[in-house]
Amino acid sequence: MAKVELKAPVVEEIKANLEGAKSVVLVDYLGLTVEQDTNLRRATREAGLIYKVYKNTMVKRAIEGTDFAELEKDLDGPTAVAISKDDATAPARIIANFAKTAKQLEMKSGIVEGAYYDKAGIQVIASIPSREELLSRLLGSLQSPITNLARVINQVSEQKAEA
User: Fold this and answer.
1) Torsions phi, psi of 139, nearest 5?
2) What is the mean pLDDT of residues 41-46?
3) Cα–Cα distance list, 152 to 17, 139, 145, 149 (Å)
4) Looking at the predicted structure, is the pLDDT value of residue 1 above 60?
5) Are β-strands 80-84 and 50-53 bridged in parallel, bridged antiparallel, or unpaired?
6) Which residues contact residue 141 at a Cβ distance below 8 angstroms, ignoring those fewer than 6 apart?
7) Which of 12, 63, 131, 152 could form a disulfide with 68 if both were Cys (CB 3.0 to 4.6 A apart)?
8) What SS3 state is found at 136?
């Protein structure tokens, strides 16, 4: 069997993973221990992400002519790919959180909802809270004035009851 025939299924797997993806982040994982890598894989899996290490040439073939083609310039050295089909900020956020304990882990770049971000840009994306967290903050902000009004009315009624 020719080498090309062996590589085709891997390229197709990468294309399938990228299809419908909201974000893709390239990660330099060099220097991680086996335990750290296992923990990182567990964290990404629990967050619903696809985290895999592919050969750079395979990724280059898979992203050729797609929205993710800009990532080709960052495919050098050991590179892992973190893909999310649901939450656009999840890969950057999960990797950045994990990098706080594993200093060797480094994000190279990424594509989030069709826009390319370099290392600095992807760090900014990582600081954006999840959708659920943003919704809970909004709900808290909306409930705060109502709660305060109810508390004031209750205090007024208690004062009138005492008098």
Assistant:
1) -60, -40
2) 92
3) 54, 20, 11, 5
4) no
5) antiparallel
6) none
7) 63
8) helix
Tokens of 159: 């004062």
- Share the mean pLDDT of the chain: 86
Question: What Rg do the C-alpha atoms of the chain give, in angstroms?
Answer: 23
Residues written for the chain: 163
- In DSSP terms, which residues pair with 159 in a beta bridge? none
The answer on pLDDT for 53 being more than 80 is: yes
- What global pTM score does this model have? 0.76
CB 95 within 8 A of CB 127: no
Roughly what angle, to the nearest 10 degrees, separates helices 119-126 and 90-99? 90
For residue 121, the SS3 value is: helix
pLDDT exceeds 80 at position 4: no
Q: Residue 129 in 3-state DSSP?
A: coil
For residue 84, the SS3 value is: strand
Asked if residues 40 and 99 have their Cβ atoms less than 8 Å apart, the reply is no
E strands in 50-158: 50-53, 80-84, 106-112, 115-117
Give the helix ranges, DSSP H, for 19-76: 34-46, 56-63
Give the single-character DSSP code of 108: E
Q: Which of 51-60, 66-75, 149-158 has the lowest mean pLDDT?
A: 149-158
